[in-house]
Amino acid sequence: MTTTAVGLAFCWPRPVLLVEADPTGGSGVLAGFLKGTTPYDGGLLELALSPLSVADALRDVVRPLSPSVSLLAGTRTHAQAAALRDVWEPLGTALGELEASGQDVIVDAGRLGLTGSAKPLLEAADTTLLVTRTNLPSISAARSWAETAREPASGWQHPGLLLVGEGQPYRATEVSKALGLPVVADLPDEPAAAAVYHRGSAPPRHFETGPYIRALKATGQSVQAHVSRSRFTVLGEATR
To answer: Which end of the chain is more exposed for a tag (fewer CB within 10 A), N or C?
Structure first.
């Protein structure tokens, strides 16, 4: 899940803020993509504890990862997730306002339904994508969340699916029919290429022009086409 969010952020067609909202704690970006070389110096917890408004405090806890990608790091432990209960709603508003400055947002919501999950961000996003592989156990686990996404009461706007390993074994049309949601995009199962964003591995040969990067770029375009104005996107996961 985090691998997909990081890769999508670095291939997004506009400047983007990546928000780690996984309530399980521990930054997958700092420990994985950055290989533990960058210390935690502020994130969601500091945002929640700041005496400033969320919109004002947001500037102080965001760190750049590249000229076009910034990061709002998540909590360090799962015990800190409870402290974020009152920050999700104003954060959703603040993230939505970033569109006016030309910046989009991708939220890594982690596994859905856990204590401390960022439910208000799911409701505030322009689109929420349920990430799943195409094997039977993954589809089975995603089914209940797909049912939730289809309910108007869920508050999810333009929900859809982002598939990993399409055709392994089920095709996009089959998964869409089984879950009752449109497939917005799919990514190939390319472990060597994904490891670049998962644990900071050296890029394999022809990485920049290979199928994984092409698919990530196409996913960004597909998401933007999925909604007319894409301020921020939430990725949620039913299984790992």
So the answer is: C
Query: Directed axis angle between helix 172-179 and helix 136-150, to 10°?
Result: 50
Question: Is the peptide bond between 203 and the residue preceding it cis, with omega within 30 degrees of 0?
Answer: no
The rounded distance, in Å, linking the Cα atoms of 12 and 7 is 9
How far is it, in rounded angstroms, from Cα 12 to Cα 104? 9
In the structure encoding, which two tokens stand for residue 41, read together?
Answer: 């110096």
Phi-psi map region of 131: left, alpha, beta (phi>0 left; psi -120 to 50 alpha): beta
Domain 2-237, CATH among 3.40.50.450, 3.90.470.20, 3.40.190.170, 3.40.50.300: 3.40.50.300
Round to whole Å and give the CA distance between 159 and 197.
Answer: 25
